[in-house]
Amino acid sequence: MKSERKTGFGTRAIHAGQAPDPTTGAIMTPVFMTSTYVQEAPAKTKGYDYSRSHNPTRTALEQNLASLEGGRFGLAFASGMAAIHCVLNTLQAGDHVIAGNDLYGGTYRILRTLYEKFGLQTTFVDLTDLAQLEAAFRPTTRLVMLETPTNPLLRCCDLAAIAKICKKRSVLSMADNTFATPFLQNPLALGCDIVAHSTTKYLGGHSDVVGGALISDDETLHKKLMHFQNSCGGTPGPMDCFLVLRGTKTLHVRMERHCANAEQVAKWLTQHPRVERVYFPGLPSHPNHAIAKKQMRAGGGMVSVELKATVAQAKKVCSSFSVFSLAESLGGVESLVDHPASMTHASIPAADRRKAGLEDGLIRLSVGIEDADDLIADLEQALRKLK
Known about the structure:
Elements: H1 9-15, H2 56-69, E1 73-77, H3 80-88, E2 96-100, H4 105-115, E3 121-125, H5 130-136, E4 141-147, H6 159-168, E5 172-176, H7 181-184, E6 194-198, E7 212-216, H8 219-232, H9 238-248, H10 251-270, E8 275-279, H11 289-295, E9 302-307, H12 311-318, E10 325-326, E11 336-338, H13 350-355, E12 362-366, H14 372-383
Parallel strand pairs: 2-3, 2-4, 4-5, 5-6, 10-11
Antiparallel strand pairs: 1-7, 6-7, 8-9, 9-12, 11-12
Helix pairs in contact: 1-2, 2-9, 3-4
């Protein structure tokens, strides 16, 4: 990073962790396509020895993401789930985790199908209800895992309150900030210990790379996480890091458009006769709107919609768009529609999904940066299939 002080988000997005290449003057961070590095003498290096451990392109990304989240330390991973896996590797058999009851299906799956068989216990609760959180603690609780806004019901948890409760018990708190991005929300500043991202989503922003990240502010915790990052090897290649860095440079301008479009789409959907409920933190009708307004700078780019429809009808609507594309993932410049019950959250048993409020008629919209009028017209024609 250049020597002058840069404090604005947009300036940090473009410059943090990056400087022109000293050899060639290239303005863009080079893609260091190497697996190993020449050493001056045994164990005497210039900071790099093997690219699973460190790579200059990855270092630039890790420093950039840490700056955007307001943390001192960043770690990049090959996927968001590799990042989650790294956090869970810091725990022991017999430890207890508290997690949100409507979190991403992949996080639910790794807790239930991998770590449970190794003796890690998990309690899933509605983390928007602090009384449920307090009641779930055990003497063996070591970690609280939360998303806000959650995926896909867009519930908003009180980050500062949860972090305070965790610190009182010396329990780590990890906030998945994928949906909000560091442009809208900064969990570390509100007291959380770890921030997780799927950089596949808004940070990359172009649906062309898969990655993950962890950001923290405590050096001891960072070293523990870095140990498992290196030991388990779920690290991204240099080209993946380059693509995410390309994405973070425009994060602030893209998020402004995502948020503006999502707000227009959400308001329009609230007036549609075949819509039962609209989930969007920026709407005053959202049950956690006050929390969202306190800790987020805007409502985000995601809108979930519960249709007055059977599961078959909901699936038919999902296949009826021309501008929205039916696909998993989110956060790209293009608009996507997803049916969580049969796609992103299919690994969660149906009874558990419905108990958490995730109905079979729910569809999730990742609102892109196209013209809002075209998105609304596409929704209007697709919803006609319910007649």
